[in-house]
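Case 450 in the screening queue. Each case pairs one protein sequence with one candidate compound; here the compound is tryptophan. For every case the pipeline is the same: read the inputs, emit a complex structure as tokens, and attach any notable structural observations.

Predict complex for case 450.
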Amino acid sequence: MTHNGQGRAQWSSRLLFVLVASGSAVGLGNIWKFPYMAGSGGGGAFVLVYLLCVLFIGLPIFVAELYIGQQSQANPVKAFEIMHKPKTPWRFIGLLGVLSAYLILSFYSVVGGWVLDFSYQALTNQFGSLTQESIQNILTALFADPGRQIFWQFIFLGISVYVVAQGVVKGIERASKVLMPVLGFLLFFLFIRALFLPGAKDAVVFLFVPDFSLLTPKIVLEAVGQAFFTLSLGIGAMMIYGSYLNKSENLLKVSFLVSLLDTGIALVAGFVVFSIVFTFKFQPEAGPALMFQTLPMIFSKMPASYFVAVAFFLLVAFAALTSAFSLLEIIISWKTEQFNISRKKAAVIAGIFLFGLGLLTAMSTNILSQTTIFGLTFFGLFDKLTTSVFMPLGSILFAVFYGWILGPKAVKATVDQNKGTKYFFIVFLWLVRIVAPGAVGIMMIKGLFY
Ligand code: TRP
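Case 450 output:
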């Protein structure tokens, strides 16, 4: 594979790019992480900060990443060498991205495994006649069992490796084309169902009426981290997807569309989860267990619950898989282009490493639950390190590279793709140069050290 456009894979159309990029963005971050983080972050105030972060910080950085990828047509390490100069120190951000992709995918595949385990339980009709208590026991039992988690983690990784090994268009694009529309349809169906739950109104109040007294610097950092996580920013995922885009594609338009879809889906998922939480009087602060404890409840109480439960968990699994593809693609594009090995070989090697690293997460809820670093289990540590440190740091550097190193010329070229006005250009330039990186920097310092 070359890096100059010749012979390099390219997405089939703009629509398909929006679909794969949404596939990357929409994942466990929306359906699993967003609701529990909003729940433990106090609801409305967290959601508001998160929305502002998506708009004023996430979007400019999204465009920066896409631009660097699109213009370099290379993996995130090589991209900086092409855009700047050979052996530039900027390439280390690309490497930090590869490292982050390993860390994120290692725990992402374990949580993806939990979803597969729940899909299997739904298939074998385990959710039929559940009480609240017995639902909580399902997850507790899974957490206590490393073998079961490792088994499903292996399956999750295996599927991801298989699909991505087939190629960008033949693997990632083809799978997303089927999975994404079905996901949208099912979420819509659940949304309608949740609207009729008695807890729906409380859910809206909880998510949209902010209580600012609950905001701490730590929660603000979590909200910005979540904005990056959910949009797949800061480690080169959008950069690599951008590198398979046509060089003249309108980046402002596609990044806006993807962000809108992603945010909409997170809010709907949050609404569904909290409608159940308030209907059945669960704790909004349940943490990572939240989705797994709430959703089976709605299924045991609705007509055709068997089919809905199966479909739902399978679809969360699909959403997780299409996100895992992008994480894996960062690693694989780097390996194939840097070491000149075949895609298949790179995929298998990455899979083996990821499986090994993932064991630490699978054991974080049992054998290794007492082994902590800075008070966190391996799972907590990998999540925290990537979401609160590497992703914000990478994002700051991407914005600085785009806004200052490539500079106004690059930003102007992006704005021109969209036929933007001069006024818009000025606003966007300073968002990229100062507002986005500055705000993230301040939040990082405050959130980490105070
Ligand atoms: N955005 C995905 C989600 O919400 C996760 C994800 C995929 C990701 N690729 C990423 C997160 C790259 C950070 C960076 O579940």
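Case 450 observations:
- Confidence is low (pLDDT under 50) at residues 1-5.
- The domain at 11-449 is CATH 1.20.1740.10 (Amino acid/polyamine transporter I).
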